[in-house]
Structure formats: C-alpha cells, structure tokens
Amino acid sequence: MPVLPPHHPITNSMNLIDKNNPLLAKIFETINNSPEKIITFAEYMNLCLYDPEYGYYNSAKIIIGNQGDFFTSSSLSSDFGELLAIQLEEFWQVLGKPSNFKLVEMGAGNGNLALTIINYLFNHYPNFASNIEYIIIEKSQTLKVKQQQLFSDNLANTIQIKWEDWDSIPDNSIIGCFFSNELVDAMPVHLIRYSHKKLEEIYLTEKGNQLLIKYDSLSSQDIYNYFEILDINFDKNIYPDDYHTEVNLNAIDWLSQVFTKLKQGYLLTIDYGYTAKKYYHPQRSQGTLKCYYQHRHHHNPYVNIGSQDITSHVNFTALEKYGELLGLSNLAYTKQALFLMSLGLGDRLSELSDGKMSLRKILQRREELHNLINPEGLGNFGVLLQTKNLTTIQSQFSLQGFY
Length: 403
Ligand SMILES: C[S@@+](CC[C@H](N)C(=O)[O-])C[C@H]1O[C@@H](n2cnc3c(N)ncnc32)[C@H](O)[C@@H]1O
Description:
Elements: H1 12-17, H2 22-33, E1 39-40, H3 41-50, H4 73-76, H5 79-94, E2 101-106, H6 112-124, H7 126-129, E3 132-137, H8 141-154, E4 160-163, E5 174-181, E6 190-195, E7 198-207, E8 210-216, H9 221-229, E9 243-247, H10 249-261, E10 262-271, E11 273-274, H11 276-279, E12 290-293, E13 296-298, E14 309-311, E15 314-315, H12 316-326, E16 329-335, H13 336-350, H14 359-373, E17 382-388, H15 392-396
Parallel strand pairs: 2-3, 2-5, 3-4, 5-10, 11-15
Antiparallel strand pairs: 1-7, 6-7, 6-9, 7-8, 10-17, 12-13, 12-14, 16-17
Helix pairs in contact: 5-6, 5-13, 10-12, 13-14
Bound molecules: S-adenosylmethionine (SAM).
C-alpha cells in the first residue's frame, strides 16, 4: 500500500482499488448533493468511520484487540478496567456516596471495559455497585449491538446498565462520572494547511469518478477562534510553508454536551495527545493524522475507505481551555503509567514473584502489565480529570490515581 502524506491527492491506482467500494459511491453522492460540490475533510472522515451502512465503526470489520486493526488498553487485559474501577469508586466516596451515582462511558467499543468495571465493582465494592447506574453512549450502531450481546451473554449481576443518546439524557441530570478511553482521538477533524502565509482548509471533491483534494478558505470562524483561544499564532513567521495540522471541533461540541448533562461530578478523559504547544509545534509539519489497517499504521486516509481506522491526537490544552470557558474545573492531569501505578499496577507486578504462577503465565502477565505503562506506548497516554460543581473540600481530596 502506498504511504503518502495526508494531503497527497488521490491517484488513479488508488481509485482502481476502490472502484467498487459502495462507501466511495456514497461519498461522491454526498459531495454532489452539497451546494458547492465539496465536503470538508471532517465530513469525509465522519463518513469513512461512522456512515451507518459502510463506515469503519459500523462494519463487520470493526474488531478491537489483537485480532483487529488496533488494540486499546481495555482490550489487552482486565487490569486497566479493574484499576480504573478503583478510581471510580473513590469519586463516589468524595461526592458523599450518593445513591443515584451514574457512570457514563462514552464510546465503549466492544464493551469489554464496561463488563470488566462492572464485574470488578460487584466483586470488590458491592456497596458502590448497588448504588450505581451504568450508562453507555455509543455512536456506532454495530458496536452498540455487540455491547448489548456481550452483556446479555455475561452479565451475572444486578447492576443497571442502559444505552442512551445525548438527547435522551436530561440537562443537568447526571451526578457521577463521564469517562472515556480513546474516544476523542476517533472524532472527525478538520484538516488545515498553512500555505503562502495564510490558513486554508482541505476539502474533497469529485471529478470523473475521482476523489480530489481542494484547498480553500476555512469552513468556519470557529477554527480561527480555536487558534486564538489556544494562543497559536500563525502570523509569527515560525511555521514552514505547506504546514499541515488538524482541528477537532467535534471535541469542543462533545465537551459542551458533557457539561450540559453533568449536574455534579467528574469528566475523565484517557487518550493519546499533546498540549497545544506540542501539537502545533512548527516542526510537526504533517500533523498527527494516522490510519490503522491490520495492525500497521500509515498516513493515507484515502485508501481502504471504510476498512481502516483514522485517528488524530488529542489536544489536551483545548479540552482544558474550552472546559474552563464552559465552567468545568481542571482538577488534574497525569500520564496513564503514573495513574495505573498509583492505583495498584505496581502491586500486581510484585505479585508475579510470589511463586504461585507458572513461568509462562508470569511472562504473559508481565507483558500485559508492562504494555499498559510502556512510556513509548499506552503509558504515555494523557489522563485528564475535569469536574463540575464540586465543593472546595471535594476538590481538595487527594485522589489515589493522581498522587
Ligand atoms: C477507538 S474506539 C475505543 C473503544 C473503547 N473505549 C476501548 O477502549 O477499546 C472509539 C469508540 O468511540 C465511539 N465513538 C466515536 N465517536 C463517538 C461519539 N461522538 N459518541 C459516542 N461514541 C463515539 C466509537 O464508535 C468507538 O466505540
């Protein structure tokens, strides 16, 4: 497969590969039905990932874990979910153990994380388990069905679990914790280019059954505002010509939805990403957009249309700054390795030397645990904790995962 920078125009050979791709036909239809006969890259990415019929996350091809295109912390072993469950229980304690505490997982993938958390809470924190309702918000209908199937096959306890859409949750109704693992990196982004001293956006159009790239002015004032709010100034003469990057406006809408629904409690975001300074560093001239196909990554979002994952890094500064503007407080930020070690991953590693396991099992467990804290991989993920309407005393509580 050719590996091309994200802005490289489609070539004939790629079109031959995709000639009979029904998603490409749908993308052309969307382009041709639009007033200007162009769509933004964000619209294109949304179709590639979330088209109800052929989008990657709605297709039969979506398998998260070793058998799929990529794995996540929760698909490696149950350790991630179990340690996270310890932190979630502590949130409940800090809020005074309310009887209507809700855990809202957004973007639950194959449902493994939810199942692990629920089972762990039931076995280790029955008091908490009997006081919660577990809600999943999932954009992909295919994954929602998979999650429901997993729960009907495995749920051996009485925790209430339900699937909701944003619209079905009343405003200011959730006391509890909204949380996600690798949700924000899966949101469609706007692709931006800085060229000849001005900002442009990347659009897609169609000509003679070919998908073509078009550069034009930014599709929304919100993108200019985004850079202004983050103090990223392209007029400073430090950016090279043909600089490419991304802007995730969907993350800002999502943040605002969480804020609207949360009455009191936490928003916990775990994902890979950078601060705004690092994200928009002049040397990061090709941005962070990445595609995953059969456990290999590359930078061409215009191949394997509907059969590959497309992601971009999370801008944690944007979540913090926009969160503050909305009225959230930024309580803590740490790295996944430190977060999990503080919650007891180190103890799990020590237990491996107690002589109770076979050597084979010890090696397997050690690899699983090390993967979660690998500083060049999952361990380097960011863990951002934001809160709404906590009292001063609640905010000052020293949380185990953030020591
Ligand atoms: C990369 S997967 C991560 C899955 C899972 N959290 C894990 O750790 O394995 C991204 C998940 O987010 C879902 N998703 C993407 N955008 C969403 C949104 N706006 N609301 C809810 N779910 C979303 C996808 O369908 C998918 O389930």
